[in-house]
Amino acid sequence: MPRRPVAVFALASWARRDVFPADLITRLRHLVDIDPDTTFTSFRDPDAATVLAEADVLITGWGGPFIDLDVLVAAPRLRVVVHAAGTVKNRLDPVVFERGVIVSSAAGVNAVPVADYTMAMLVLGAKQAFSRAERYATAVEGAPRDWLSGDGTGLHDCTVGVVGASRIGRLVLDRLRSFDVEVLLYDPYVTAAEAASLGAERVGMDDLCRRSDLVTVHAPALPETRHLLDGRRLDLLPAGAVVINTARGSLVDTEALTRVCRTGAVSAILDVTEPEPLPPGHPLFALPNVLITPHLAGAQGRELRRLGEFAVAEVDRYLKGAPLLGQVEPARLPYIA
């Protein structure tokens, strides 16, 4: 009888529970031998060596251990790593690829709720919903009813600047086709023709800042993208512009953003910050034109099972010899989010 492939969970216990509910565990166990009650957050665990020695498949996720040469030596049968979360950047050593191990990520699935969050914030940000709600809540009897004013608000006929034609950026670009907006795109790796096919005009970063009513950031964190939105570029934004960042906090200069938001010239919606989290009492928390959410744009709650569904389907595809939909190309590893 041929040996059944063996899989091992390497992620936080809460992630195993929430990403892989009982019905997905049942489907997974039809494909591989796996103990759903054993999951590793460190391969230094005394039991890890025994389990790794038999592992053909590693199913990783949030809270999972770093995968390096030591892990590969301990897992000589390992052929595929399926990451049931977003990015695998900084979660594995490139030696994994050099040893011929295939890596797949559910980043494409995790991108969907981020794009949905972004679209919601574009609509609400264009309406100045958060600052107007603050004025509404704090208005006193007899005060000017300026919280009612909607002059110059709304997404219709706006110019939206998208920074980065990443996986999430492209989903946002696709969703923007449903709105009557002009779309600008900054991405040095995208041609003008490709930008046009995505429904956008390819522009330089400074031009995007000068022309955009709303700027939404979807570029990876790289040395060259650090403070891509710095003080000089934030000063280029039109009065009343909104900055939305769901990518990485390092892309926006926090000090400079605080300065322009304090004046009221610019508003911001941030799901990521630098540092993350911001220290208690940071001035951005107190500004009525700034909304900061705790890195929740990605898969949350009921959305998490979609990551598990994808991971189980990837294991199935791998065992059937079919192409993996989330396969990570080693050359792209430094440039992903």
TrEMBL record:
Residues 47-328 form the D-isomer specific 2-hydroxyacid dehydrogenase catalytic domain. Keywords: NAD, Oxidoreductase. It holds the Pfam family 2-Hacid_dh. InterPro entries: D-isomer_2-hydroxyacid_DH, D-isomer_2_OHA_DH_cat_dom, D-isomer_DH_CS, D-isomer_DH_NAD-bd, NAD(P)-bd_dom_sf. Residues 146-297 form the D-isomer specific 2-hydroxyacid dehydrogenase NAD-binding domain. The keyword Lipoprotein does not apply. The keyword Ligase does not apply. SUPFAM superfamilies: Formate/glycerate dehydrogenase catalytic domain-like, NAD(P)-binding Rossmann-fold domains. Belongs to the D-isomer specific 2-hydroxyacid dehydrogenase family. This is Hydroxyacid dehydrogenase. It comes from Saccharothrix hoggarensis.
